[in-house]
Amino acid sequence: MALLRAATPSDFGPVLENGRVVLRTPQMSDYPAWAELRGSSREFLVPWEPRWAPDELSRSAFRRRIRHYLRDMREDMGYALFVYDAQSDALVGGLTLCNVRRGVTQSCTLGYWVGVKFAKQGYMTAAVRAIVPFVFDSLELHRLEAACLPTNTASMRLLERVGFKREGLARRYLRINGEWRDHVLYALLETDPCG
Known about the structure:
Elements: E1 3-5, E2 15-17, E3 21-24, H1 31-40, H2 42-45, H3 59-74, E4 79-85, E5 91-101, E6 107-114, H4 123-138, E7 143-148, H5 153-162, E8 165-176, E9 179-189
């Protein structure tokens, strides 16, 4: 079960903990660890992500990213969180809740990435499990959506392990590494059991 603790003046947003991982909003002080992890994981991440910009790992690009994250959080449009190993405090990846929709929809979209040296070790499963109570209890949303490439079996297994249900295929859904690619759509409802 995730614990949501109150933000302190040094925190910019929620801090979620579940014993295995700690999730918190990225800050400029995270830049060196983020740049190192993303840089060393580039070959691993590129097949699953939008095309990287030429300055993707620069300090100025990271600063723009932080401003975007903070604006989205202030406007209740999205929430970006970095994922840390609870024991070592090492940055292992990131998770985003984007496209927060209120009104009759009450949903958002989940995205995530993990550094290559931390892949297939249960970190992202723990992180997704930690974010579910935040989505349904704190944000009071009804539906959490996710999409992954049909070839990304690790991501599909992760989502199913947590309790997401496969809902279909979206043709040419997202532009990944410069190409419009089909995606398998998943969702978890607030009434679904979470694994």
